[in-house]
Recover the amino acids of this structure.
């Protein structure tokens, strides 16, 4: 099964690497224990060296080629300045154009963290129940009123063929859910056991209530911005 992750400069590291780690563990039955069930294809807005928002650099050789059938499109979040740049390009954005075309050939359309803003900018969340990082929910409410925001900051939300995740670490829960949706509960349980994903954080806190966001003032002619 094929999962496509389109990345861009200053993309969030955990949004890409965490789910990729989860997707890498399921294997197909047979004599070769290394035969993976999922093929994760990274494609880049600009092929070559891509910098995570943490400063780490990684290599992506594939660009935004013509979309091919996929079991899932996984859109990660990233630095607000990068998001603003992509969104400001509107219909001229190669990245948003790729999302629209790849979505038409994908069984599941997914985002984690601020990746939901990119899906929304591409018109792919209109009418769907969705979530994102708590700091960016005011942006979706202000500029994409056709997107229905889930109550209570869930780790992920499933609405028909859309799967959206909350902030950053939510991608781990969300990727397990996608594995369950594509390969069944037993496979997802096996991945949970193998990765020892039983989180018990050493601190406890509540998600803050916010009315402002780093993305509340996009360029005036970006998709979804008030005219």
């Amino acid at each position: 099964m094929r999962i496509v992750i389109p990345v861009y400069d200053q993309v969030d590291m955990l949004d890409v690497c965490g789910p990729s780690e989860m997707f890498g563990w399921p294997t197909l039955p047979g004599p070769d224990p290394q035969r993976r069930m999922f093929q994760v294809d990274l494609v880049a807005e600009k092929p070559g060296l891509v910098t995570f928002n943490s400063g780490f650099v990684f290599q992506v050789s594939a660009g935004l080629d013509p979309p091919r059938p996929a079991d899932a499109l996984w859109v990660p979040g990233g630095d607000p300045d990068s998001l603003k740049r992509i969104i400001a390009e509107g219909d001229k954005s190669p990245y948003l154009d790729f999302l629209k075309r790849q979505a038409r050939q994908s069984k599941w359309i997914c985002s984690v963290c601020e990746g939901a803003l990119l899906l929304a900018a591409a018109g792919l969340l209109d009418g769907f129940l969705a979530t994102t990082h708590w700091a960016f929910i005011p942006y979706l409410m202000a500029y994409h009123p056709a997107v229905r925001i889930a109550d209570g900051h869930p780790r992920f939300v499933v609405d028909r063929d859309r799967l959206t995740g909350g902030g950053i670490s939510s991608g781990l829960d969300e990727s397990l859910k996608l594995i369950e949706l594509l390969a069944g509960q037993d496979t997802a349980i096996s991945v949970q056991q193998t990765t020892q994903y039983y989180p018990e954080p050493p601190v406890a806190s509540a998600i803050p209530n916010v009315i402002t966001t780093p993305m509340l003032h996009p360029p005036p002619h970006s998709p979804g911005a008030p005219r």
